[in-house]
Amino acid sequence: MLNQEENLKPRDIYLKKLIAFQDKEPVKVITGIRRCGKSKLLLLMQKHLLDSGIDKRQILAMNFESLEYANMDYLSFYSYVKEHIVPGKRMYLFFDELQRIDRWEEAVNSFRVDFDCDVYITGSNAYLLSSEYATYLSGRYVEIKVYPLSFKEFISFHDYRCEKYTAPGGEQKIRVKASNGEIVTLADLFDAYMRFGGFPGIADVGLVLDSAMTLLDGVYLTVVVRDILERERRREQRQITDAELLKKIVLFLADNVGNNTSLNSVSNTLVSEKMLENRSIKGKPAVQTIAAYVRALLESYLFYDVKRFDVKGKEYLRTLGKYYIVDIGMRNYLLGFRNRDVGHALENVVYLELLRRGYDVAVGKIDNTEVDFIAANANEKKYIQVTESMLSEDVAARELAPLKKIKDNYPKQILSLYPGMKSSYDGIRSDSLIDWLLSD
Questions:
Q1: To pair with 172 at 20 to 30 A between CA atoms, which of 76, 81, 370, 392?
Q2: 230-260, pLDDT tens digit by residue?
Q3: pTM of the model
């Protein structure tokens, strides 16, 4: 239950979605990687309910990470909730990390049938939304996907605020003030974001390298050990048994964000670079083994896969998609800090921001060239290129070339840290990546 003294930072983009579905039939399923803010989002929703006049007795919150519920099965779970129902009142049920209860979906379905209730649950693994769950709730749930902090949220969580001002030449610009009144540049804050990433807990420990790396180490180990290795043992799948192989695949995918990647290339590279022992008669891990490990990483929300879309053929391609990591700070934790590969790191940030904004994202193929992202939702579609700088004519020509080949009338945009003076190239927008991240 919400502690009234708890200091909660706003996550309005997600809270508004929950409020929109309040008191409606669908179960609200909040998903995302460990420590991305799902539990705090539940608390924010509880605060909203209390502020709107709901009696605290109507709110029941259970966190299944607590030892208090360690021995609970789905039947005792049902009994516990039943005992706390207030007769004649609508109940608001909040269940955190519910995937730790086997057959939990049967209990949740019974709550819907037996009680007047509004249900909110979180989970740190996509297995939560497995076919079994879909069978029991059959379209009666809505998924709210939560990600680590956006750059805009990062600024707020670290107690900075943006304010507009007019430069001497009349141009409208943005500057940033710290809580102590100190003025910093957006570029400096973005450097910090690219270094430390967006896990909310880093705001608690501060932008101190050792503390941040300790926090990220805890997140990573929890994801790998608890959400992958232990879960596989509980499911008795016995596919993900080699912790060392799992780590090597994590490092490979982290090192290759934004590169066209196949499961065969993962296996071949791990063997050729002697990152692991030969594990089969053919001298490399079986592709189906690699596939199982990669699937587990996707289910834990540590990585996301992006399919390629043939713009001319108007169809998705089966080969050479891309992978992006959930947080750029996590990538730095895994690989160490380095200045190379800036372009792909920026792509990673843009990809996650597009997901936050509700777009479906694909990589675009047109002839022998590639568009970084095709972003689409119910209302719009756009093509986006990401690069570090548009100051070089050669780089500008390279980034513009695939967009110029696309003959439809959907918006086309290049995002870069250094866009130069030109804001448009024959209708293709050239915008500041930082300004775009701060836009609504």
A1: 392
A2: 776 655 555 788 888 899 999 999 999 999 9
A3: 0.94
